[in-house]
Amino acid sequence: MSIGERSVPCPLRAAARTAPDSPAIVEHHVETTFAELDRRVSGVARKLESLGLSDGARIGAYLPKNVGQFVLILAAIRAGMVFVPMSTRIPPEALPPLLETAGCSTLISDNEEALRAAESSGVRALRPRELLGGEASSGRASSGERACEEIRIPLERPATVVFTSGSSGFPKAALHTFGNHYFSALGSSANIRLASGDMWLHSLPLFHVGGLSILFRCLLVGAAMALPKSDEGIGASISRATHVSLVAAQLRRLLDEKCDEADLSGVKAILLGGSGIPERLLEEAHRRKLPVHTSYGLTEMSSQATTTRPGASLEELRTSGEPLPYREVSVAGDGEILVKGETLFAGYVEGSELLRPFDEGGWFHTKDLGRMDEGGRLSIIGRKDNLFISGGENIQPEAVEESLRLISTIEEAVVVPIPDEEFGFRPVAFVKGDVSPEELRKFLENSLPRFAVPVFFHPWPDDAPAGMKVDRKFFRERAGILHRGR
User: Fold this and answer.
1) Cα–Cα distance, 386 to 384 (Å, whole number)
2) Is residue 2 part of a domain?
3) Is residue 283 helix, strand or coil?
4) Which end of the chain is more exposed for a tag (fewer CB within 10 A), N or C?
5) Which residues pair with 354 in a beta bridge?
6) How far apart are CA 290 and CA 235, in angstroms?
7) Residue 1 lies in a domain
């Protein structure tokens, strides 16, 4: 298929035609085959169309991850609508401004508070059972459509809106086309082989682009997705799959579970992303011969932008790998990472407006800082907007955090600035781990310039937000409260 083609076969329908009885989703040992999934998706798509929702309508979803949510995502896309997964980690009362930003006309949820919040802001409220029950889920094909018929989807069709992490401010609503997800999945296979008969453990939230990317990768090749059990350790969950995506915290739990004792012989690839992976975790994973791939990705690039090759050396794993097909990655003179390509999002939506934040060359400026080595592998330094100046010296918080994570008992570390009359700003750190401030300070003084050593070390707050990326805004505000008036 050439990039210039305007449409591609629907991956779900293609899988339902070629391998109808193969599992598409496995949830608690209950299998949904590709044929069943395709029938359900068609039924729900017709139901959505019957509700009078217009072509391109944006549908928000505040739902737990289950088979039903996968059906809703694919049905919305098949019906020509845009699916907007909302984080279930935010309280229901915080939904209205996000729904307004994303331009949602409808919210699907089984949370009554969320439904009331939506209706109070003029957004139509629907319960999942209204769409997934009865005729919609029976999968009975209409007279105008047979399961054997090919469905083609325009590459330019808007498909999803995903909110950025919002770690440094209010989250932005990124619009992805079907082509963005399609080429993201296609390019991913260059370094991570995935085929029919494989199974990817769906270990990431669907309201993150990383979670959505697993869906499209599996559909494209007819592989299955397994939903993890809430009461099962990550090692046991992974042992049932061939592929898995993990962030640093999940990798740490896997290593702590003594994965040598788990049956990971069938695991072909472990994709690492979300944030920087501590050096000691990489060393341990490499020592245990786990098939890990480090990567660099972002919402605006529909997940992965770079990934290391299979069997990468430890030196290579310390980088984020090379750019994947259908992506271009460049590092500007000031160190900022620029990206473009077939996976680059359509823009940020603000209600009915679409903002396209690209320069004249079509590049998106990520605000991430990095460098390329002679082999074309990308290494991440930190965020351009995290850097601050203390007494005339530049401090990149991520560099200090990386040093702190070298301590084996430190699980998490975040460094943020606090105002200082003499220096402008001074660094303070929040750490999760059993190490005294005196020990931390002594350790850092042997590896960092004195101006970069935090002036205070605070224990990790019990109410720190969970997520794939650290919420720096929360820690800056907490630091401000702790140091106000000192």
Assistant:
1) 6
2) no
3) helix
4) C
5) 349
6) 12
7) no
- Helix, strand or coil for residue 3? coil
How many angstroms separate the CA atoms of 381 and 4, rounded? 35
pTM confidence score? 0.89
Is a pLDDT exceeding 50 seen at residue 139? no
| Mean pLDDT (whole number) for 136-155 | 66
CA 5, CA 154: separation in Å to the nearest integer?
Answer: 9
Q: Are residues 316 and 437 in the same domain?
A: no
Phi, psi of 338 (to 5 degrees): -115, 140
Classify 101 in phi/psi space as left (phi over 0), alpha (psi -120 to 50) or beta: alpha
Same domain assignment for residues 213 and 298? yes
pLDDT of residue 229: 84
Indicate whether 262 pLDDT > 70.
no
Under DSSP, the state recorded for 196 is: T
- Hey, what amino acid is at 482? L
User: Same structural domain for residues 113 and 208?
Assistant: yes
* 376 and 464 belong to one structural domain: no
d(CA 204, CA 439): 35
| Residue 360 counted as domain residue | yes
Per-residue DSSP letters for 298-353?
EGGGTEEEEEPPTT--HHHHTS--EEPTTEEEEE-TTSEEEEEETTS--EEEETTE
pLDDT digit string (tens) for 293-314?
Answer: 999 999 999 999 999 999 999 9
**Cα 116 to Cα 121: distance, rounded to the nearest angstrom:** 9
Which range marks the domain in which residue 394 is found?
388-483
Alpha helices, DSSP H, located in 144-177: none
Of 380, 414, 429, the domain-final residue: 380
Let me know whether 109 and 202 are in one domain: yes
Q: In the block, which residue shows the tokens 């823009």?
A: 347
Q: Which residue type is seen at 146? A: R
